[in-house]
Amino acid sequence: MSRILDQRILLLVISFSASVQSTKVLSKWKKCGDPECEKAMSRVQATTDYLGPDCRYLNFKTGEEIIVYSKLSRENENLWTGSKGKDFGYFPRDAVKVEEVLIGEEVEVLTKETDFLCLHEDKYTFE
């Protein structure tokens, strides 16, 4: 009985660790095209295939087009956020080349906890 309890505790700890990792704040600041981060900033093209480490990242193949909506700043300037079709997530800026700039000036804003959640297949509901 004690062994089963130990296994359940271990599974709970592993599950909690995975949850904490997937909600880790990647930066406290980001740059956007507007204060709400709703305007597209640029259109980029993938220069390499990219497979992200978890569900917060956007996977793509060389040549695919991505629309950029924000860029992490200060602590982690290498990650941008964008969409490809219905997929949305982070990707390294050095994996793409800018094809078209869509905004004139970037605005720096604080990130939110929800910026770092996995948002696939309607798993999360926000009120």
Automatic annotation (TrEMBL):
Keyword Transport: no
Membrane topology value: Single-pass membrane protein
PROSITE patterns, sorted: SH3 (PS50002)
Domain SH3: 39-101
Claim: Signal is one of the keywords in the record: yes
GO annotation terms (biological process): endoplasmic reticulum to Golgi vesicle-mediated transport; protein secretion; vesicle cargo loading
Subcellular location(s) of the protein: Endoplasmic reticulum membrane
Gene3D superfamilies referenced in this protein's UniProt entry, alphabetically: SH3 Domains
Region forming the signal peptide: 1-22
Entries under Pfam families matching the protein: SH3_2 (PF07653)
Keywords: Coiled coil, Endoplasmic reticulum, Glycoprotein, SH3 domain, Signal
GO CC annotation terms, alphabetical: endoplasmic reticulum exit site; endoplasmic reticulum membrane
Alphabetized InterPro entries for the sequence: cTAGE_MIA/OTOR, SH3-like_dom_sf, SH3_domain
PANTHER family: MELANOMA INHIBITORY ACTIVITY PROTEIN 2, MELANOMA INHIBITORY ACTIVITY-RELATED
Descriptive protein name: MIA2 protein
The organism of origin for this protein: Hypocryptadius cinnamomeus
Gene designation per UniProt: Mia2
